[in-house]
Here is the input.
Amino acid sequence: MDKIVTLPVTGMTCANCAKTIARQAKKVDGVSQADVNYASERLTFSLDTAVATPQQVIERIENAGFGVVTGRVELPITGMTCTNCSRTITRKLNKLDGVLEADVNYANERAIVTYAAGSVEKSDLIHTIQQAGFDVVQAAEDEELEDAEAAARQAEIDHQTHRLIVGALFTIPLFILSMGRDFGLLGEWAHAPWVNYLFLALATVVQFYVGWDYYVGAYKSLRAGSANMDVLVAMGSTVAYLLSIGVMVAQRFGSDSFGHHVYFETSAVIITLIVAGKLLEARAKGQTSAAIKALIGLRPKTARVRRNGQEIEIALSDVVLGDEVVVRPGEKIPVDGTVLSGRSAVDESMLTGESLPVDKSEGDSVTGATLNGHGLITLQAEKIGRDSALAQIIKLVEQAQGSRAPIQRVVDQVSAWFVPAVIALAFVVFGIWWVVSGDFATALLRLTAVLVIACPCAMGLATPTSIMVGVGKGAENGILFKNSEALEQGHKVTAVVLDKTGTITNGKPVVTDVSMANGVDIRNLLHLAASAEFGSEHPLSKSIIDYATEQEIDLVEPTEFEAIAGHGITAQIEGQTVLVGNKRLMERERVDTASLIQEADVLQGQAKTVMWVAVDGQATGLIAVADTLKDGSHEAIQTLKAAGLEVVMLTGDNQATADAIAAEAGVSRAIGEVLPADKSGYVQKLQNEGHVVAMVGDGINDAPALAQADVGVAIGTGTDVALETADVTLMRGDLRSVPQALKLSRATIRNIRQNLGWAFGYNVALIPIAAGALAAFTFLPIYLRELHPMLAAGAMAFSSISVVTNALRLRKVKL
Here is the structure.
């Protein structure tokens, strides 16, 4: 049985590390596919659990020199009666995403669960055990599972900070003394032999204490059969360090065969600058997942529930399905559920991006993590833990951020051979310069500069960091991308197909016009018509009743009521016979329609459904009903057209109605009388015309068309939306989110191209300069003709930081 496993991995320093980890994972029997995201530092693989366990993959990764962040929890269980019970719980727990290994001991009635940090919560484990028919004993002071991954990342940053401080303390005085001596600022004492030994002492601390991680990383990388950034740094800094020792040894025996200049400051500066760069990179990468952290931070810690007639405050993880949850004004709603009593306005902006609060009353659905307004509401818990809307959104965002974009494939191919090629090039450069110049030290410095300036990290970070920030930016605005491919594909869209009902329009009929015969009072007309419709369940009837209620018109129940199929209704209201229906009903009852026929024709020409009202045989008025445009639909369509996109509307209505709605919405091409099953055919027709098509629908009956489209967009509201239906899910029922999603896609791809352009351009331009390609151009500055390894190290450190920083600019994109 195959299981998708995701593991947070530490210790990666460049894209080659990611390739090594994926390769090592694939060597385990039972692993059919493995993918590593360097930016999010996660390994995802498909594992046949009948052949191997996740622990075997973890061991392989750790043996390759990397770390896997895991957690372990022990749960005391009640209700077991035999060993079959323990096997059942074990099987259920092992099926949970994020659980690496579960072992339930029947003898001591305990479950020991090993999990991938950040991917499963204690409440999920408890819920699974309870679903299996057992229970978990919880301590009085129930502690939350530590965020092991966050702790590990912070420990790594603290370690880098310590290295940087130590490196700076020894490198800065070494650099000042060395430069001061070179520029003749320190006097004759600086040329005494003991000064070189001082330099050696200072440099040795940096080389083998601050830089020790690079030696360890290089060793583990080479042992695993690959070469990463650690190899380049270790080689480059060691060459400068050993060359300096060689100079000192030669001078000790009276020889200048290695020259007279030592380069201890070079090796120290290389290591310290790169440590500084990696620290800044780690901090910047942490900001790329800010959206996920913000979503996780939305979860309230506790909930107030009514049990046994008492109102008590409990941990959120202790809420069970069916609990009656009390939410006071200004509090976060803890779980998904249905309002049992009370009225309030709920701020859902944190999930949908919609700034206006949404009114909620009895029977309405509410979503956990949203903010209650000024009313007290009581709700019934219906979705908790991993089943909640917030948990699904977090999971979807994490999957999208961790997925590999098609544009990344070229980078992967280059990264596979980049470091070995740089090492080979460095030795070729060394050989050429030794032959050309005859100076061993000069040739070694060229080799060092080439090794140090090469930056595989920038190439590895270019795409995934932009994807992470772009997906996170979308989530903040209620736009959920299912994967990075959808985010990439969006920028290619040339045509947008819109379903009418529920997408362009509100999807329910409302009263738009009321016309009266001469001498008829509008309130009396609505009183009689809405009262007559009181006994009907028809959607058009409900629209009239709702409209009258909004106008604060009192209604009465009819004393007699009859529904006439295909015509309308007849009812007795306060002693009067009231007819409400179509023109056929009027003709059947021989009602004279001449006074209102012209107005009825005008309304019907606007694609509105006209209902006639007659009282005691006299036509008294018309009530027009239509499915109205959503707020923002016209604006959204104009934005799409302004971007050069072709906008097409599909609807099952007749062509006249389709044309009328299209004219109101601003759609230039409308196709009517389309069955749901035929919509995919129209999408394919556009594709055959050469268009890249985005299909926007409600995510349910438009599923075939969404699947056929190059980008399927499901539009809905809150928890009603089907998160897995389409490539892109819009949490708000607002069509303006469509151009926002496409704009975000274009901005993200533009950002990726900038990053790739910089990463590749940096290496293509600076590696030849480091190799001495400009040495013959005497009119150029010396630092370009003879690029010093220290400058190379600074450039290398800046390269990665610039890529991540550029990706973070996406957070400021205005949608």
Q: What stands out?
A: Residues 142-148, 718-723 have pLDDT under 50 and may be disordered.
